[in-house]
């Protein structure tokens, strides 16, 4: 405990770190305050406050409940995330985007500008669909045509405002701004979910012992998730030794950290989007509700869980294949005079890296599928749906990843000022905290 208070005191002593943390907290408070502002012309008492499910529930979770509240920030950062994914995929398939990725800072600025423009276009389309499907007609208090036009502009401005807040946190705060905003939206639902779970346990079955067992199980799941997020396969790389004058260059042995879960949360997001298709079909064609498609409306059913797990495994291999390029890694290594011991440079190195990635991606995809269906398993054990979402899925992976990255940045400030780090046994390593000889950036 003394070590903890000493570390917190050291954090507060560093003026730059203190200012960054305070700035981050202020921005997050502003975001939470604005997220409760309802769209102009909407009667809040006429809104349906029931919990969203499927893809809509995922969007509502990312937006911190703003989606179901019909807030000015209802769409949150989802359009920005969608635009970022599209630009990233274009960087793999389109040569002009590949060229911009290799142009350094100027290329990144161009890609960021394209992402912003694409965010505006996606937000405009999603805003129209959101207004027509999520805002009840009886809740609109002004002229309907005027409301549609006004709300489209307001929702687009709200998404750009959230994106601006995230960029401000990244520049002047601590951690990744967009990721922190998503994390705060997820955590905002935890107190209500925990209160509901406590009430159900003491009113119904289980009592205090059942609640304690749930907390212990949640702690074990979080530890398991951290192992998956942090798991890497270290491929040793040796650099050729060169002697220039009286100085020696190279000759250093490093390693490439190939992540067990290189795809991050993207396979779950993609799979969840596909799992929403059967529910959409049954809503448009009521005659299909009597078919086997109705099983996909219950995320705790065996059919849903097995299909969901299979899609996650498939998308994990797909997304890893398009984001991790063994050929480029082998070429970069060869240009810098590096080689893997007992493996020839060039094609043999590329094949070796590809084989290692394939071997570690399979167990990684299995573990990711297990984490994704854990909320359904938790519901089957009698845990309330709201609280069960914290036992796995996208929310848990985002929480673990963002917390680790933020702690890594705080520890970097401490170590630069010659203070002890956060961990007594070793340094905190986030998704980008492992030194690498070469490799690709992780995706949140």
Automatic annotation (TrEMBL):
Membrane topology qualifier: Multi-pass membrane protein
Compartment(s) of residence: Cell membrane; Membrane
InterPro entries, sorted: SecY, SecY/SEC61-alpha, SecY_CS, SecY_dom_sf
CC annotations in GO: plasma membrane
Keyword Cell membrane attached: yes
A matching Pfam family: SecY
Keywords assigned by UniProt, alphabetized: Cell membrane, Membrane, Protein transport, Translocation, Transmembrane, Transmembrane helix, Transport
Similarity field: Belongs to the SecY/SEC61-alpha family.
Protein name, per record: Protein translocase subunit SecY
Protein source organism: Pedobacter quisquiliarum
